[in-house]
Amino acid sequence: MTSNLVIVAFERPAIDWHAVAPEIVLLSVGVLVTLLDILFLEKARPYMAALSGLGILATAIPLLTLGIDGNDRILFDGAYVVDDFSLVLKAVFLLAGYVVVLLSTNYIVDGDYWESEYYGLLLASLMGMVMMASSRDLISVFVALELLSIPAYLMVAWRKRDPKSNEAGLKYYLMGVFASAVMLYGMSLLFGVSGTTVLSGIADSIQSGNASSSVMTLGIVFVVAGFAFKVSAVPFHTWAPDVYEGAPTPVTAFLSVSSKTAGFVALLALIFVGFYELSNVWEPLIWVLSALSMTVGNLIALRQKNIVRLMAYSGVAQTGFMIAPLAVAGHSLTTGDQALSAVITYLAIYAAMNLGAFAVIITLARRTGTAEIDSFAGAFHFAPGLTVAMTIFLFSLAGIPPLGGWFAKFEVFRVLATAGETWGYLLAVVAAINSVIALFYYASIARKMWADESAGVDLNQVDITPSLVSALGICVIVTLLFGIFPQLVARFTEVSLLALGA
Amino acid sequence: MENLLDSWGLTVITFSPLLGALVMFLLPKEKEQEHKVIALVTSIWVAFVGLILLIWFDLDATDRLQYVVDKSWIEAIHSRYVVGLDGISLPLVLLTVLIVPLCIVYSWNHFPEPKNPKTFLILILVLETGMIGTFVAQDMVLFFVFFEVVLLPMFFMIAVWGGPNRRYASLKFFLYTLFGSALMLVSFLSLFFLTGAESFVFTEIADNVVANAVSRTAQLWIFGGMFLGFGIKVPMFPFHTWLPDAHTEAPTVGSVILAAVLLKLGTYGFVRIAIPLLPEAAVEWAPWIGLLAVIGIIYGAFCCLAQTDMKRLIAFSSVAHMGFVMLGISTLTDFGINAAIMGMVAHGLITGMLFFLAGSMKERYHTLEIKRLGGLLVQAPKMGWILGFCAMASLGLPGLAGFWGEFPAILSAYNPANGLPVETFRTFMVVAALGTVLAAGYLLWLLQRAAFGTPKDEFAEDPNIHDTTKTEWIAWAPLLALILALGIYPNLVFRTTDGAVDASLTPCLTIDVNKLSHEEIKSAHCPEVYGLEDHDSDHHAASKGS
Hints:
The structure holds 2 protein chains of 2 kinds.
Chain A lengths: L1 H6 L13 H20 L7 H22 L3 E3 L4 E3 L1 H27 L5 H17 L5 H19 L6 H32 L4 H10 L4 H18 L8 H8 L2 H26 L4 H23 L5 H17 L9 H36 L10 H4 L1 H15 L6 H14 L3 H30 L14 H19 L2 H7 L4 H4 L1
Antiparallel strand pairs in A: 1-2
Chain B lengths: L1 H25 L5 H25 L9 E9 L4 E7 L3 H18 L10 H20 L3 H10 L1 H11 L4 H30 L6 H10 L4 H18 L8 H8 L2 H26 L1 H28 L3 H21 L3 H32 L10 H4 L1 H15 L5 H12 L9 H30 L5 H4 L9 H19 L2 H14 L2 H4 L7 H6 L8 H14 L1
Antiparallel strand pairs in B: 1-2
Helix pairs in contact in B: 1-2, 1-4, 2-3, 2-4, 3-4, 3-11, 3-14, 3-20, 4-5, 4-6, 4-11, 5-7, 6-7, 7-8, 7-9, 7-10, 9-11, 9-12, 10-11, 10-13, 11-12, 11-13, 11-14, 12-13, 12-18, 13-14, 13-17, 13-18, 14-16, 14-17, 14-20, 14-21, 16-18, 17-18, 17-20
């Protein structure tokens, strides 16, 4: 045996360089940032944010050429696939990453935190996400997951002089590692019964009926639970509020949008490419996760006094909405495709509106110096522009037309109703009731900002920096455009993973 | 000219207000005068377009959608941008484009606290886009979007410019309506799916409901969802509790728009969507709708008698009046629904006017507590007479608009559509007729306490209490004139609505069983639910017996 391994020389698998060009560009920028820091130290620091931002935009160029080319590219025996699904999500990751860089620029400078390392880690994490969009193999999924998580553990603890941030970092790390362990155990079970790590191979072994279904079920449950942690679905959400509150706010924005999206991407790939046939296993699981996340997230959000904690719980509830279409995705192939586009649509719109909300929170907190909701009172008088922007984001999150969020929610309802199953209708009703509960706290914030007397917080006359203005501008425009012309987003999210599996 | 109007008229009338709002958004807040002028010019332009649309409207074909535009919008979900105007929409669109400029004129010199005309006027214009859009949309998704667009501006109008309890009232208004519309959306989507329609366009769905025989149970549930959505908006008893709070707290102009137009979105939804699309479910739901409507009439009236605040009293009178409208709709007859639309227009004009009056009185007296008011006719005689005029119109005095909403609605319950329990509806009729007596009671009592007698001591020497001002006259004169005009010549409305209403109802509802022969009834192929078979055999048995 050992001699065999020695004799077979390592043969480099054929690599489609065009297909991995985005990853290579992103990697180069990340390395460049780190190298420049080592070489020039202080002198390079002011340029790091701009360099990272440009690097992310540069990554979008090969993405565009791949999109224009339009062929599906399968690499490494199916472990890494570049198709429409992955391209759309890579674009979402890059845009969200770019906005996060814009949000971070002044926050990191003003806090006197390490800058170059921050952007290096941010790019590394982004790299993990971009890889995740293409991963179709248990191992590449896992590697991508760790690549995106480990830098995030560090970034959460970036406000190093604040014990809360340290606590958050440690908490996130421990919970994250625990979830990884559970997931990895599930993956080992899946590999054990199917004999392959490629997702389409797992699908084949499910279809052929060779694999023991009870072990398979256990494996699926563990893997889904692991990703439920990543997307902060109830009952795996407990880390979110503390971590969100302790982390630097731009990092919170990054976790709540990009990291969550990455978790969803993996979940989608696993479910649609790998486990699709066993819908009787994952559908009920998702149903419960969805109903619980919506209800628990919303109910706890009602009682929050800190805006970031509120966004954490609202994020949990939003996860419930996003995951809902998957609860009926196994009904038929058409429903499956629709559920997939519904989730991706939601993710794309959610990225814009949630990042926007955090942009306002960061900007307002620069002036008021606190994240208590009460400090937002009367914002209409001292920051009318920000108030209008925040109103747009909040009501978009609540799903009020004509703001982007309505179409996201609409797609969810559409899939649930289209499946024509009692459970689907039931979840739709749960979702409808939850939209009302969610509106209560979103509208309360808006009302506080518009109608209440200012609580008399001392306002710093800090100017709103150009990078924050551009971040806000991007988010407002995208949120409005997606709401009024949903076809803009819908035409990109009409992708399918099922055709590939078949 | 006509061609241009055909393809652009409705789009222009719907989105012009939004354009005006956008221009104002870009102007700095300090330029108050410019803001007012832009808002007024925009709303007058919209009213002008509305007038042109009326002039070119083919009144001989009111059942046909006119000025139809059909463009692709969200291909991914088969939703299209389809707008059109028929005899049902026309009066409501005209009501909207009339009310909005009057509201802007009215608020010209007295914006409620905390002033900020820029934002206030922007909200009114956005509201106008939402309202007109709802009345012209012919696609379920488009309708839903416009239906929801009105929520935000109204929410802010109440929350920012409202009375002392505005925080509670604004949120309550928003939550109630959203709850209904979320379930309504689920209903729309299930209907779309179950019919297997190619698009969300109303006519397309309606055709497919018939063609694909959606199961009775599904129809009943779907109608139930729509009932909640529209019923909360109307609002019907027992979902009405948001209305008095919202009205009491809203600024004057907000109350006027709320009463004059927003409530009509609910009733319009029944007439335009729920009943034409699901006639069989409507037959089964109608007795319950009728029951809630008459409860609303009586309950609203009793609440009015118990109110101590004038504005709240008018708000509860809305509950009662919308009860009459819903009673008319629940008969599912051509007659009843025509009456209902007339009722909507009349209520819009009259109650809108009453809220204007309440606002003006509040400005003079700084209170609307009825027992502190009195002697309005002594201190401000013209305003006192206007109040008397509106109270008369509201209680349904023949010769004024209110009569033509109330009386035919009651009358229509005598002879409801096929398949509805006649005895039940005749009972409703009697109860509703009692409601008009109560209406006369609370309105005359209000008039007596507020306008007659001598002024109370605290206000007797108040220099603040003066008669109707010029801006008030400009804002009110068109409403007062229309109340009179529609009262004398109600055909102004009936002429446009009749054909469209008739076309929106399935023949099975309106077949006159006593006039047609057995074969003719049979050839209509009506499902059991309309009870035509029974009628038929009764008829035959009767004829055999004789």
